[in-house]
Amino acid sequence: MGVGIKKNSLIVFNFFGNHIDPDKWKDPDIFKPERFLDGDQNFVKPELFTFGYGRRSCIGEHVARSQLFIFLTSILQSFNILPQKKLDNLRGNLNIGYRCVECKVIFEPRDKLKAA
Ligand code: HEM
To answer: Which domain, by its residues, includes 22?
Structure first.
């Protein structure tokens, strides 16, 4: 039962595979934040392992989540972010992180700022 793992083996979790698994996600290449909302617009916690899993999962998850929330909401309060040209998909280069091949965006001040 299960898989035997030799002592001192290094195990690297396939985070990327988990995030683009078409069995879990419809259209994994499409940027679709509303996929995390149910019919009543409530947040549905996804089956993701962005911060690892189990005993050695990330101890900074709560710090990271609150920092990202403040960072992103501050930007989105002030700017509309538009692609310079239409992106066909989110495919990119996989290294230690994952980067779009090309993703130039325009930060357009929101109406409130334009009027000031
Ligand atoms: C978006 C931001 C972050 C992501 C995606 C992330 C992701 C991860 C993942 C996947 C692991 C587990 C690696 C493994 O399985 O071996 C991990 C571990 C860890 N993370 Fe993060 N992390 C983030 C931010 C942070 C921050 C802000 C801190 C510190 C304030 C932090 C501290 C740690 C530490 C100390 C571990 C090792 C835990 C252990 O081995 O017991 N991380 N992180």
So the answer is: 1-58
User: Closest ligand 1 atom, CA of 13?
Assistant: 15
- pTM for the model stands at 0.79
Ligand 1 centroid to Cα of residue 56, in Å, is 9
Query: Does 18 contact ligand 1 (Cβ within 6 A)?
Result: no
Name the pLDDT band for 112 (thresholds 50, 70, 90): low
Domain assignment of residue 99, yes or no? no
In a domain, 104, yes or no: no
* Angstrom distance (rounded) from CA 106 to CA 81: 6
Q: Which atom of ligand 1 is nearest to the CA of 57?
A: 12
> Which residue type, as a one-letter code, is found at position 37?
L
pLDDT digits (tens, 9 = 90+) for 26-62: 888 788 889 999 999 999 988 888 898 888 899 999 9
Lookup: tokens for 21: 């698994």
- Under 8 Å CB-to-CB from 66, ≥6 apart: which residues? none
* Ligand 1 site, residue 66, Cβ cutoff 6 A: no
Query: Ligand 1 centroid vs 55 CA: distance in angstroms?
Result: 12
87 found inside a domain: no
Task: Count up the domains in the chain and report the number.
Answer: 1
